[in-house]
Amino acid sequence: MTQLKTGDQVKQDFIACGDTVHAWAVRNNFDPSEVYRVINGYNKATKGKGFQIAVALGMKAKPIVNAKNSTIYPNFA
Predict the structure, then answer these.
(1) Closest CA to 53 of 67, 69, 33
(2) Cβ burial, residue 47 (10 Å; 0-12/13-18/19+)
């Protein structure tokens, strides 16, 4: 399992690669203000678009889907 990132680590990744949060959000079809909220911890990213953003940024683990198409979250095992 890969190490999940914190908001500060994500910010450092953006600085290291010379990209902006806004540009990344637009490229990935996310609302930039919502991405900032996830990175800064104002959105806990437990469901919906916030969760999708956190997964895309590496802040949350991608859900595992079993053969019956029901989602199994690793933290609830």
Answers:
(1) 33
(2) exposed
pTM above 0.85, yes or no: no
Q: Which residues contact 25 (CB under 8 A, 6 or more apart)?
A: 31, 32, 34, 35
Residue 13 has φ and ψ, to the nearest 5°, of -65, -40
DSSP-derived secondary structure letter, 75: G
pLDDT in tens, 1-51: 579 999 999 999 999 999 999 999 999 999 999 999 999 999 999 999 999
Q: Phi and psi for 66 in degrees, rounded to 5?
A: -90, 180
